[in-house]
Amino acid sequence: MARWRLAGIFVLLAWFGAAGPANAALHCTLSQSPASILFSPTAWPSSTPATQSFTLTLNCSAATPVNLLFNKNTSNLTLGGTNIPYSLCQSVVANVCNAVPLTMNNLVGSPPLVLTLYGFLASMSTPYAASGTYTDSTIIATTSSGGGVKALNFALNISKSCSIATSALNFGTIPLNATTVKTNLATGSTTISVRCTSTTAYTVGLNQGTGTGATTTTRIMSNGAAQLNYQLWRNVTRTLNWGNTVGTDTVSGTGTGLTQTLNVYGSIAAGQSVLPGTYTDTVNVILTY
């Protein structure tokens, strides 16, 4: 789960009342709860918005109206030049943010006034932001003489994240000679799509498949009890085996936040005695990051 953290705040708001017999100063405090606000998801972007409520409690020594001034109600959470837009909302209905006015006027904090506000991250599709902590601050001040000033500190923690998609490798129809021995090499190819948070290092391996006796260098397609050997390669010239030993026969990369395409090349060696029919195998793709 991704987390927003709003540090606990303490604001001293002081106003001086009109001259009178006591000429007492107005004292106010502003507190926020919870001290830390957790947002979901931790991987960004998300197909749905992320919303989390929190409260600000205005507690004043007298029932004298005061104003709160926010220096902004929309901004960016930032890390290393990457920005994630967010908003400060009075309400969120049907994933639409009703932004907090920059000035909240005539607030009476005696008895204590509790304001419910929302942090809001709109849905985004691309790119996947880099993992790390994104931060920003919103300044709250009073418009009264002698009033306090304080920052609301926003944070979003994004964890490393990857997704993967595959498509079938189809060798097509292979002709056999009269003795059911194939005399020519058969080839095919497919792709693996990887999408990772920006700057996230990853490796992609392929296991041996489901054929009885198969290895990562000699995989086996089956048609009942009949078998047909084949190989999977990392390069188009079919010289680099694709296995599942990281650093030896896997493919590595670094996430950009966008989809990256990896090519898988297959071959069926000539000279195998096989029976006519449809041969299949399932190979698992192992994504490590």
In short:
The protein is mostly beta strands. It folds into two domains: 3-158, Immunoglobulin-like, CATH 2.60.40; 162-288, Immunoglobulin-like (Sandwich). The protein is built from no helices and 20 strands.
What are the key terms here?
Immunoglobulin-like, seven-stranded antiparallel β-sheet, disordered N terminus
Structural class by secondary-structure content: mainly beta
- What is the CATH class designation of the largest domain? Mainly Beta
Here the CATH topology of the largest domain equals Immunoglobulin-like
Q: Compute the number of structural domains.
A: 2
Largest sheet: 7 strands, antiparallel
Number of strands: 20
Shape: rod-shaped
Radius of gyration: 31 Å
Q: List low-pLDDT spans.
A: 1-23
CATH architecture of the largest domain: Sandwich
